[in-house]
């Protein structure tokens, strides 16, 4: 029941408080303690188990879903029949708690504030459009919370949380602490904004909400697959192993997913999420035609290509529309505008303010470039006596000239190249490539 309470979207508790509303009320980012206190859940008879208090709070389901039974709820996103039977019994127990005496527990407010189920419901509610329904939001939150459950069930996740919080407390309390420390709501708000942008809309109806929820679940619940390598002995025996995020490069195909060519897309979807994997190592096959910009703005070059076009293509993987560096700058500059706005979606409010602000970037702003401290990072590995050291100097100049033909030089590289040629960049004429304003266009 503790697990069910962790991942159950509770509209009644969500109606009591919201992270963004609390931040706007205090005109600053709220602390976990402030947010917990905003729920006001001290009333009621005390109970031994926090989940009894959780399920006793009115509003366990949206009004239009009050007639749904335990079997229907348990089958919303459950494939395994035996697991579904166990889940059904737990759901039935939760539904029976409705209408009974409201109970309290010292951990109830913390559960309401940071449980993944509650957080997913509030995040999807803020992202939902006018055409969405309460039941549609709840169903999408139930599916997304189930994806988060699979994430917290992983062996590596359990090991991480045990390292961070120890094993003296129950694991579900470590999950709550991790969601609070990592600000799961902010993570989901940004992720849902990206997923909605990929659909080409910010007005999400019930079907679009479920689509983005399932897309997130695909990234969260990537399963391990089997690979076959060859040993380094003379007989070259097969070595079988499993991996969650690796994509086959050479060798034998072992699983049906690999044969179908599905694995690459699955791993790419997981990488383009705020969840693991956090580092992508690739051969040159990943240097063009693939987007990695959603949560990356650094490229480490283990070697250098022979021409500036390939060099540009590599860094172009993380320098794209509404990329990570762009969003970091928009967030840094327009947090106060978000607090002053009444828009329930923080990122929509931030980009609305960015669109209305003035800067020198023209139509590239705010989606492709935006002023601020975040930049696309280029990291090169300079090995001693490597030919890449001299090669980089030539390649950097060639890349600057290549970009100059497109009207988009990297300013640091441009200034450095001019200095090496004995020219002062401040004394050179400037070509203004911005489109003419509407006032000038009339003349």
From TrEMBL:
<dbReference type="InterPro" id="IPR027417">
    <property type="entry name" value="P-loop_NTPase"/>
</dbReference>
<dbReference type="Pfam" id="PF00271">
    <property type="entry name" value="Helicase_C"/>
</dbReference>
<dbReference type="InterPro" id="IPR001650">
    <property type="entry name" value="Helicase_C-like"/>
</dbReference>
<feature type="domain" description="Helicase C-terminal">
    <location>
        <begin position="268"/>
        <end position="321"/>
    </location>
</feature>
<protein>
    <recommendedName>
        <fullName>Helicase C-terminal domain-containing protein</fullName>
    </recommendedName>
</protein>
């Amino acid at each position: 029941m503790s697990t069910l309470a962790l991942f159950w979207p509770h509209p009644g508790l969500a109606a009591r408080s919201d992270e963004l509303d609390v931040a706007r009320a205090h005109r600053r980012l709220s602390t976990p303690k402030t947010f917990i206190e905003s729920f006001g859940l001290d009333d009621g008879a005390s109970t031994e188990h926090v989940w009894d208090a959780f399920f006793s709070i009115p509003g366990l389901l949206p009004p239009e879903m009050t007639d749904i039974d335990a079997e229907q709820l348990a089958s919303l996103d459950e494939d395994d029949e035996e697991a579904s039977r166990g889940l059904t019994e737990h759901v039935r127990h939760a539904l029976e708690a409705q209408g009974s005496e409201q109970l309290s527990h010292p951990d109830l407010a913390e559960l309401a504030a940071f449980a993944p189920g509650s957080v997913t419901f509030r995040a999807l509610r803020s992202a939902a459009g006018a055409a969405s329904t309460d039941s549609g939001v709840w169903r999408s939150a139930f599916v997304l919370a189930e994806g988060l459950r699979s994430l917290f069930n992983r062996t590596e996740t359990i090991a991480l949380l045990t390292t961070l919080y120890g094993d003296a407390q129950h694991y579900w309390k470590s999950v709550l602490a991790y969601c609070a420390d990592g600000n799961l709501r902010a993570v989901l708000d940004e992720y849902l904004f990206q997923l909605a942008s990929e659909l080409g809309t910010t007005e999400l109806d019930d079907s679009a909400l479920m689509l983005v929820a399932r897309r997130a679940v695909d990234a969260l619940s990537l399963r391990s697959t089997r690979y076959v390598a060859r040993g380094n002995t003379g007989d070259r025996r097969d070595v079988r192993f499993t991996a969650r995020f690796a994509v086959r490069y050479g060798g034998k195909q072992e699983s049906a997913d690999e044969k179908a060519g599905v694995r690459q897309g699955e791993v790419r979807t997981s990488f383009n999420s705020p969840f693991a994997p956090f580092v992508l190592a690739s051969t040159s096959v990943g240097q063009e035609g693939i987007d990695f910009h959603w949560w990356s703005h650094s490229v480490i070059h283990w070697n250098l290509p022979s021409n500036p076009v390939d060099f540009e293509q590599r860094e172009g993987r993380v320098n794209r529309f509404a990329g990570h560096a762009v969003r970091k700058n928009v967030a840094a500059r327009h947090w106060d505008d978000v607090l002053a706005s009444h828009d329930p979606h923080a990122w929509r409010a931030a980009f609305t303010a960015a669109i209305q602000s003035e800067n020198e970037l023209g139509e590239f702003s705010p989606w492709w470039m935006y002023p601020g401290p975040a930049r696309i990072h280029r990291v090169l590995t300079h090995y001693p006596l490597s030919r890449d050291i001299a090669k980089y100097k030539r390649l950097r100049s060639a890349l600057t000239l290549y970009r100059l033909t497109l009207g988009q030089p990297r300013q640091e590289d441009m200034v450095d190249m001019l200095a090496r040629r004995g020219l002062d960049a401040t004394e050179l004429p400037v070509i203004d490539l911005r489109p003419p304003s509407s006032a000038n266009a009339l003349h």
